[in-house]
Specification:
By secondary structure, the chain is of the alpha/beta class. It has 7 helices and 10 strands. It has one domain: Alpha-Beta Barrel (TIM Barrel). The chain is globular.
Length: about 180
């Protein structure tokens, strides 16, 4: 599966209801409770949506081998996002799309994350904040992995700058930018 363009990131039920009935084929579910997750994904699939979840932000779910089995076999998510190597590795083992989130706090954090990413080999890397073109370029070059820009993106100009820096996609919870 190739990710590209602007990918809606959903934080609440109102946005979920809107995105399910929109023309977007794929969205990312950022935050929810484990009790709601299965029903939400099932509902989205009825509308033909591809659903990625941020595994670290599902309240009540322990994302270990058994938590990943639940996400894949019971919930039937199409992909996951996580900051953790072991979660990314489990997703790849189960052959679903794995996106590793990288927080660009400072140059040491970026370098340490690049080392981890070279070990886990995710399908994509989401760089946060996605408004630092130099970091997008560096991560893309150093890892040879497609980069998604996310976080703090508020304008179409910032979206274009991220694409110009090598990002293949953008995640945003801003409905105006979807």
């Amino acid at each position: 599966m190739q990710l590209k363009g602007v990918l809606p990131a959903i934080r609440n039920m109102k946005d979920f209801e809107e995105i399910v009935k929109s023309e977007h084929n794929l969205f990312i579910l950022l935050e929810t409770r484990i009790a709601q997750l299965n029903q939400m994904v099932r509902y989205a699939k009825k509308y033909g949506k591809t659903v990625f979840v941020h595994a670290d932000l599902i309240n009540g779910l322990k994302v270990d081998q058994y938590g990943m089995e639940y996400l894949i076999r019971q919930v039937k998510v199409d992909g996951i996002i996580s900051t953790r190597n072991n979660v990314v590795s489990l997703a790849k083992k189960h052959k679903i799309v794995a996106i590793q989130r990288l927080f660009a706090l400072d140059s040491l954090a970026v370098q340490n994350n690049i080392k981890m990413i070279k070990q886990s080999k995710p399908d994509y890397i989401e760089v946060l904040p996605g408004i630092i073109p130099e970091v997008i370029e560096e991560v893309s070059r150093e890892t040879e992995t497609p980069v998604i820009a996310g976080g703090l993106i508020k304008t179409k100009k910032q979206i274009q700058e991220a694409f110009d820096s090598g990002a293949v996609a953008i995640t945003t919870s801003s409905k105006v930018l979807w």
